[in-house]
Amino acid sequence: MGRLSRDKRDVFYRRAKEKGYRARSAFKLLQLDSEFNLFDGVTRAVDLCAAPGSWSQVLSDKLVVSKRNSAPDETKTEETSNATIVAVDLQPMAPIDGVLCIQGDITSYETAQAILKPFGCGSEGGTKDGGETRAELVICDGAPDVTGLHDLDEYLQAQLLISAVKITTHVLVDGGTFVAKIFRGRHASQLYSQLRLLFDRVSIAKPTSSRNSSLESFVVCQQFNKRGSADLRNLSLDRDTVLDVVEGSPSLPKCIPPFLTCGDLSGWGEAPGTIMDADKSYPMEEEDYVQPIHPPIAPPHMQAIEEKEIQRQKQG
Length: 316
Known about the structure:
CATH class: Alpha Beta
CATH architecture: 3-Layer(aba) Sandwich
Protein name: Putative tRNA (cytidine(32)/guanosine(34)-2'-O)-methyltransferase
Largest sheet: 8 strands, mixed
Strand content: 15-25%
Subcellular location: Cytoplasm
Keywords: Cytoplasm, Methyltransferase, rRNA processing, S-adenosyl-L-methionine, Transferase, tRNA processing
Structural class: alpha/beta
Radius of gyration: 21 Å
Number of strands: 8
Distance between the termini: 36 Å
Shape: globular
Strand order of the largest sheet: 3-2-1-4-5-7-6-8
EC number: 2.1.1.205
Order of helices and strands: HHHEHEEHEHEHEEEH
Number of domains: 1
Main location: cytoplasm
């Protein structure tokens, strides 16, 4: 979470700390769920690029804690929910109740195998008895460090999305759902068309908790169809045409997916239908300020500080 005075006055920043979330982005996933019912019937989920863990916290609340609390009193134990949640990131993460954290690179095959292992399946995604135990939901809120150059940022984000899609095809069950961040730009329509070859339904959503000044949106891909999907080796931004479909099937034309806005604060202490402006600074009292829930475990600047301290000791 940010430390600017603007962030402190941001209603979603403050609500996130009040509810114990590590970042305001938790409300983006909650608002996407209110529109698409992402968690209905889900017992196996994967969070890619998960750090600091706000989306994993939402998964834990929705798939583990809520189901545990809804059980009869005599069975309210940790075994009540059989949900399996795996969070993956290059950076270390603080533990989250009901979430298995894996530190790894989503572009590596070893990471895909590590994700499948907690689901009780092998590298091919099946169990010994032939059952299917891949993830039913894969989410990704990852983004590269923003440079301020929109074309470059959009291209890097699109490349990250492609990496997330490729590992998703290894860990997602047929009929599953994939949600990821996307920056609107000149590569967006090509990405939509390629995703449409992998999923039967592709929508673009902009939660109200996402600032209007931000070009981010979220692509919601439903009904994964691996058997009829495209050749993933051609999944690229360097091609002017959309993917060729396996076995010579005709390629799909470029599509324009529906664009939706979603989300209010009716479930967080506000009146039904209340929509808070993510770009507006709301007044607050100084005593209302709450410290961040989990400070970073290994912030990037710590290495520079340690190296500077070593140099100072050598010079001293």
